[in-house]
Amino acid sequence: MRYRIEHSTRLELENPVWEHQCEIRLTPRRDDFQVVESAEIAVDPAGDISTYTDSFGNQVHSLSLLEPHQHFEARLTATVETKLENPFDFVAVPPREEKAWLTRKLTEVPALWDYVLSHAVALSLTKDFKEAELELPRHEGSRGLLASVQSAMAWVGDNFEYCAGVTQVHSTLADVLQARAGVCQDFAHLLILIVRSWGYPARYVMGYLDPSEDAGGAPHAWVEVFIPGAGWLGFDATHNLVANDCYVAVNVGRDYADAAPLRGSFKGDAQGTPPDVDLQMTRDQQ
């Protein structure tokens, strides 16, 4: 698939602020299954932008706005070609050999531990799961990880209702458990918690989903799990789908905080309203 993407995020502030330090993570990722033909970042007010790659491989645009201002807008214009038509096209590792395969990979690529060990929150939620009368899905060694993750996606959909507005960006998993509802960010965090509790790497993904699959008109969130034989493979618990060429990945991280598209700090006596996000994603037929 070839997509044309226009994404803007605008912040409105009650009073002028200054010394605004901002990080923008909106440039789509480049890998074997995703070709970024063009990607431009623009900001208003204008500022000098520097770029770097963070520890998770995301491209970051950083800038400082010293002059007073009452709004800030970041805009992405990009053309991306996705090539993962069949996510199941790989040579699977037999279930009995998966743990040994993972052990070798963790030795070869120590950075994978970031996506295994960051599950301490699961321990703090033990009481919340019991009160919600929920038990996390299990992964049996005799069963392939791919099948177990697909079952876990179905478990999330069976036990939690998708409901826009029931949670906020900074809501906790305890809030989600109490409400028994959430949005794509919450469903991704739940699936990450489950997979890491099994001892396998799982990471958060922020990106875009073909509008023919999701009419939400906003960025989407899903999970990538390090599947033996395949490497990173995407799982969308919101739609109970394995990610294919209808998905455009932008940022990855241990959770939403690592992959947030826009974050920063400023000086001034102002309360910001929730950002106004506008996303236009179309298939390019050329």
Descriptive report:
The protein is of the alpha+beta class. The protein folds into two domains: 2-83 and 261-283, Sandwich (Immunoglobulin-like); 95-244, C8orf32 fold, CATH 3.10.620.30. It is 23% helix and 38% strand. The strands form three sheets. Strands 1, 2, 3, 4, 5, 13 and 14 form a seven-stranded antiparallel sheet that branches. Strand 10 and strand 11 (241-242) form a beta hairpin. Helix 5 crosses helix 7 (184-197). The longest helix is centred in the middle third of the chain and has 15 residues, at 145-159. The protein starts with a strand and ends with a strand.
Number of strands: 14
Provide the CATH topology of the largest domain: C8orf32 fold
Instruction: Supply the CATH architecture of the largest domain.
Output: Roll
Q: Kindly provide the radius of gyration, computed on alpha-carbon positions and rounded to a whole number of angstroms.
A: 20 Å
Helix percent reads 10-25%
Q: Note poorly predicted spans.
A: none
Text of the CATH class of the largest domain: Alpha Beta
Keywords:
single chain, 286 residues, Immunoglobulin-like, C8orf32 fold, 2 domains, 8 helices, 14 strands, globular
What is this structure, in a nutshell?
The chain contains eight helices and 14 strands. The chain is an alpha+beta fold and 286 residues long.
